[in-house]
Amino acid sequence: MQQPPHPRLSALLFAAVCVAGARPVAAAPQGGDGTAANHPGAAVEHLIDQAALRGMVRFLADDLLEGRGVGTRGDRLARRYIATQMQLFGLLPGAKDGWEQPVALRGITAKVTTPLTVVSASGDTLAFQAPRDYTAEAGHPGEKSSVDGEVVFVGYGISAPEQRWDDFKGVDVRGKVLLVMNNDPAGDPKLFAGPKRLYYGRWSYKFEEAARRGAAACVVIHTDASAGYPFHVIQNSHGREDFWLPFGKDEPTMAVRSWCSEDAARRIVALAGHDLDKLRAAAEHRDFRPVPLGVRAKLATDNRSREIESANVVGKLEGSDPKLRDEAVVITAHFDHLGIREPKNGDEIYNGALDNASGCAAMLALARACGALPKAPKRTLLFVAVTAEESGLLGSLYFARHPTIPRKQIVANYNLDSINIWGMTRDIAMVGHGKNSLTALAEAVARRRGRRLVPNPDVSLGLFYRSDHFSFARNGIPSAYFKAGNDFVENAHGKALVKNAYTRTRYHQPNDEYSPKWDLRGAVEDTRLLLECLLTTADADAPPRWAPGDEFERLR
Ligand SMILES: [Zn+2]
Q: Is the pLDDT of residue 11 over 60?
């Protein structure tokens, strides 16, 4: 998944899939126990087994691939490997000129030249240090970003007509430095889906809205609670190269995108004679108006920019129905990770074994099973290993904007980002539970398999906006994203502790490495469940739909 700066938190973590269900307990670890019945994938689901998952993760997460940083040799090696596997499993090349859909990216590395300084009307000055107190990245492709503007506190920085919510109230913020809260208002269950995070709550929305309004810079106030991850995740990306799809001619841009610590925000508003807690309390209400703080912020960066070639890998299994084969279900998993970065405990390779070599392996295991079906499903299946997820969901966004078949003919997306490596669970979680009809479909499949579909418990983290399925959703395509369940069949308490520790100790760290100790029995069950969902969707008479009133319904 995605996260703050660039690394999308997407990864937040764990699993896409989880575990075993009812019969899980009885299921043989290597599968193949006849999960029963006449569902469309029954004859081939034994091909989704631990050996396949382990072998593919082990290769993709190997040090040899150097963390699969975008545009690197590891990126190319991963793509060749994935295409090779797809071919071996009986897929056809699904891009215009073969297996790869080229994705051009712009990489921008910003170096702070003027640290963030804030000056009051009376000349009192505060100086901040990056990345201790704040981070800065360029929001445009120019060689320099230079900002000197009045700081305006804009609350959540949200303009949402359908919620009758507007934090800007028509105030002109052109050239200003916006100080903005992360997340969205959570106090009123009737507003912004209560504690659930909508897209308005994402940092990327804040920057997009600030750029649309002509702000010079936007500074997001970090809190662990509002972000869903610690500040070090953001600090880690300071000074790194950021990646963009090529800038459009009329695309609004902004000189600097920044995050600051809560403490830094507190000091900035205090210099202006305000209290951060009071400002934030006021921002919880609909009648909030932007608060010009009467202090100026200066900051500047030098930007180095380059073009990078990467690609999505696309494999196709042609549908068997003469009418429905023009439509497709798209399965995605990102293959990129963070590459080589500063060493931690002597290790500089960010292997991304769970995030997301594991999701790629699960996607390829699905391809393996589907390729062996006696008869293909009615609709075409497109297996897309997407690039640059960690850089902002860019590979999937490019695919959703430039699909290899017309967008209206893509009926659904299933996304895999991190699988269950902790053991069998009775439940399997869905991110974005209830947003579209894939929820009911998955619920029925889970029940039939003796499992239980549950909403992903971390609704406040906004996971729906942090992995590649979001690129499809924001282009109107109903998408589904599963995570590992939490109701472990064995040693429930211990497993839950280990699972929950992952985000803190391994997420986006060099020690996200493959281990033979991974317990993949749950992942096998989850991936088989996903196979059934996928084939059921591909064979259904009617395509999936958004729930009435969902934030993405109107885009379909
Ligand atoms: Zn990630």
A: no
Cis peptide before 403 (omega within 30 of 0): no
480 three-state secondary structure:
strand
Distance 546 CA to ligand 1 centre (A): 27
Q: How far is the CA of 226 from the centre of ligand 1 (A)?
A: 18
Domain range 106-305, CATH architecture: 3-Layer(bba) Sandwich (3.50)
In the chain, what are the domain boundaries? Answer: 23-105+310-392+410-555, 106-305
Distance 358 CA to ligand 1 centre (A): 12
* Better-scored residue on pLDDT, 548 or 2: 548
Q: Which helix (H) or strand (E) holds 244?
A: strand 241-244
For ligand 1, a single-atom ion, the residues with CB < 5 A are 10-11, 355, 390
From the options 3.40.718.10, 3.40.50.620, 3.40.630.10, 3.30.70.1350, give the CATH code of 23-105+310-392+410-555. Answer: 3.40.630.10
171, with CB counted inside 10 A (0-12, 13-18, 19+), is: middle
399 contacts: CB under 8 Å, gap ≥ 6: 101, 312, 314, 330, 332, 384, 386, 471
- Give the pLDDT confidence of 187-197 residue by residue, as tens digits: 778 888 777 77
How far, in Å, from the CA of 2 to the mean position of ligand 1?
A: 6
Q: Do domains 23-105+310-392+410-555 and 106-305 have the same CATH topology?
A: no
Beta strand 347-350 with 339-344: parallel, antiparallel or unpaired? antiparallel
Q: Mean pLDDT throughout 150-167?
A: 94
Ligand 1 mean position, distance from CA 541 (Å):
35
pLDDT tier at 154 (50, 70, 90 boundaries)? very high
Cα(88) to ligand 1 centroid in Å equals 28
**Centroid of ligand 1 to alpha carbon of 322 (angstroms):** 39
Measured in Å, residue 178 CA sits from the centre of ligand 1 at: 27
Q: How far is the CA of 10 from the centre of ligand 1 (A)?
A: 5
Structure tokens at 238: 């300071």
CA 208 from centroid of its chain's CA atoms: 17
Confidence of residue 3 (pLDDT cuts 50, 70, 90): low
DSSP state of 310: E
For the cut 60, the answer to whether the pLDDT of residue 30 exceeds it is no
**Ligand 1 centre and the CA of 182: distance in Å?**
20
Q: pLDDT tens digit string along 377-426?
A: 999 999 999 999 999 999 999 999 999 999 999 999 999 999 999 999 99
Q: Is the pLDDT of residue 107 over 50?
A: yes
Q: List Cα–Cα distances, 24 to 303, 451, 499, in angstroms.
A: 53, 8, 19
Residue 25 scores a pLDDT above 50: no
- Give per-residue pLDDT as tens, 449-463: 999 999 998 766 678
Q: How far does residue 299's CA lie from ligand 1's centre (Å)?
A: 29
Specify which residues 219 forms β-bridges with. 179, 258
